[in-house]
Design goal:
Chain A has 317 residues and is α/β, with parallel strands linked by helices. At the A-B interface, strand 17, helix 4 and helix 5 of A face helix 5 of B.
Chain lengths: 317, 317, 317
């Protein structure tokens, strides 16, 4: 998330009650998670396992629960609970303040675009030119839709990330990490009916130009989809995953989080992608393998009874 | 379903044209299906296979199509078609009479709760304090939502059960069993976009406190979900199933009806649960098995060609 | 798609800039794709592989990109790009002109039917008698719903087909084939919440009388479903497939395109149907096989370690 204007890091420190050490003169331009940070960003870290990665990231301002680091040119904001500090910043700079009209007055709608009845267009949403937004679609705050985009009925753009912090005080429970990212839908994208595309937690979920999706497709937070992909009905993609250009996912394929599917890969129906896979190949199975190898495997399985018979005969002789 | 006030069993008998035998002085407090009945309830049974279970259940009033039983302290309501009698009672005491406004005047909305535009709130719905109900959600008649609940866009709470009586007169067809149950959503539950949670047929579908669901999740009628569970995108759970506390179901998992998943069980993505499984373990596959065993099986399958080669060599020698 | 009135083929030729040869006196009554054409129809073909099939189909008027055929009694409309000519005809005779009210004035609603708030009923839609259309349903232009039909909240009837023409100029991209077909829902059908039923590309998607669907079910374009079928939650059926009467598909089943499932077939949960299957049998697996055989296979797989041990022992001796 970008702030509207750069914010002095001293102001942030005051907001979250942090001890500020290092470069205390800086201005923060936004807040982000570790995989997406840029210079000028705030980032938070609360687990020793990730301290070094966070310190060495591009982030300029690190909200942290230890005093053992002094990175040059950066500022540390030391607090007991960095996660709560993150929530406080997001809630202050991106407060929940939804439009109570179906069409927000702060939304911008391009020329030649049709917004059909029952569609909700939230605050600060931008929809480009020559789009069709069908009935009962919801495009939530801050999302951006390009030109020549079609979104069919019932689809939700910008639902919150499914992203929770596990807490184990007394009993296991989950605390929501407030989403402050957006969904960016590029030109020429077409999205089916009753799909859901979650906003990024603190960065953007992106659907690349020319990509087409069938109905009931789910795209998780911070996932980046390339150009001219095809996703058939009921495909589900988890969060923070990268789908490169020209990837084809057939019906009911599931894709796990934080992985990459290479350019031009094709995944057959009902398959499950749990690790990164190379582009230019065809895949099948749950978990996926090379489609031809997987098909052969199905034939091999059918030979077990014959094998059993031979081995038992051999034994009896 | 509870009646608003207890109803003399003689009134019920008259409504459905039943012959009344046994304790004819009683008052019925509700109507329920056999797995959920309590003292004071009406229940119906039309198949000899279930006569004994029904007679021995906690129900006080049994709608039945035989005269062979005389259970002490209970009343029998004898009719030719108990299923039709059940439908008549439900339609009389819980008639279809929906609100024709987006927000029913009989709904009760708590303090600090935001109901966004395009959301439909039906008759006798209760929503607690500090909830967010996003655009185009539908919460249908009689459902109850606790405090601090978030329901994202397009989700439907209280759709009818998928529950039909098979009829074979002339040709096979299906007659709907009218749903008169509710959905109860406890405090701190968060539900994603475009999910569907069916009401109970005659009892309640319950989502336990602190449970979080991603998008496009389906929960069947009369299913009871425990506290602090996590269900990832596109999970589907059939009817009358019990999910105990702290269960984690990853994306696209399917769960069959009338089974139990034990406390703290974890089920990997795309798996299928067709029978009850113990808590505290990790599962994979369709149908599921112990995840580690199932993973090993995938390795064993890859050894078949080598085995084949060895056995055939052995044979040739 | 039927034209409102028959159109002289000379008018069509002029609209698309075609050279007209053969029977130039005819009147076109509609436009269709090759699998669905009838006498009087226009059809288009742009690939030599399908020239003969198209010429020999029932179509009376063939939009084609070659001059090598002279079929008796038919007319050829010769153009460089038949696909673009098809789009031009559809856009001219079935222009995108949606209702901007939730209930179109050109819609026809039968007696005893309840249309609940937030439901969108498009232009030229017909809904029969004694139906219930729940909140936030969308029934899009030209779709037809019979009597005694229930459509639960959030369901979309008549979304566009997921049907694209692959273009490879410069880079691979996809051009939408404009849908001009309809959805026909016969009497007594009941459809769950947040389902999607696509319209036909140029013909009709049909749901047969008495069929019942659970929530989050997807039905593709031009698919024809028989009478008294049951589809459980999250079933997905691709385009142009035929499901005969009394078929039961359990939860999360996926069915591929342009195949046939025979009468009375039962497919177990999470299975995948990729080729046509006979009626009257029970299936399981992805891809499906006879359910009992598939179950046995699961047992055989568990015997591989024992087989391995025996063979290796035999070898060591």
């Amino acid at each position: 998330m970008r702030f509207d204007d750069p914010v002095p890091v001293t102001t942030i420190a005051q907001l979250i009650g942090a001890e500020l050490v290092g470069n205390i003169e800086g201005f923060a331009t936004g807040i982000n998670e570790i995989h997406k940070v840029e210079a000028g960003d705030l980032v938070f870290v609360d687990h020793p396992k990730y301290y070094t990665a966070c310190i060495n990231s591009s982030a300029s301002f690190i909200i942290i629960n230890t005093k053992t680091y002094f990175p040059e040119g950066k500022a540390l904001l030391i607090v007991d609970d960095p996660f709560e500090a993150y929530l406080k910043i997001v809630e202050f700079y991106r407060p929940f303040a939804p439009s109570m009209k179906m069409m927000s007055e702060s939304a911008s709608i391009g020329k030649g675009t049709t917004i059909m009845p029952g569609a909700y267009i939230g605050n600060h949403v931008t929809v480009g030119n020559n789009c069709i937004i069908y009935p009962n679609v919801a495009i939530l705050d801050h999302c951006i839709v390009g030109n020549d985009v079609i979104i069919q009925s019932g689809t939700v753009i910008g639902s919150d990330a499914f992203y929770y912090n596990k807490k184990t005080s007394r009993e296991i429970h989950y605390k929501k990490m407030t989403s402050c990212g957006r969904v960016l839908i590029e030109n020429g994208v077409e999205i089916g009916a009753n799909c859901t595309i979650d906003r990024g937690v603190s960065h953007d979920t992106i659907i690349g130009a020319g990509t087409k999706m069938d109905n009931l497709v789910h795209i998780g937070h911070d996932t980046v989809v390339g150009k001219n992909c095809l996703f058939a009905g009921q495909v589900g993609i988890a969060g923070a995953t990268t789908i490169e250009d020209n990837v084809i996912l057939w019906g009911q394929v599931g894709v796990s989080k934080t992985l990459t599917i290479g350019k031009g890969a094709v995944v057959y129906a009902q398959s499950g992608v749990k690790d990164s896979i190379e582009g230019g190949k065809v895949y099948f199975g749950s978990p996926v393998e090379d489609a031809r190898e997987k098909m052969k495997e199905l034939v091999w399985i059918k030979r077990i009874p014959k094998l059993w018979e031979k081995v038992m005969e051999g034994k009896e002789k």
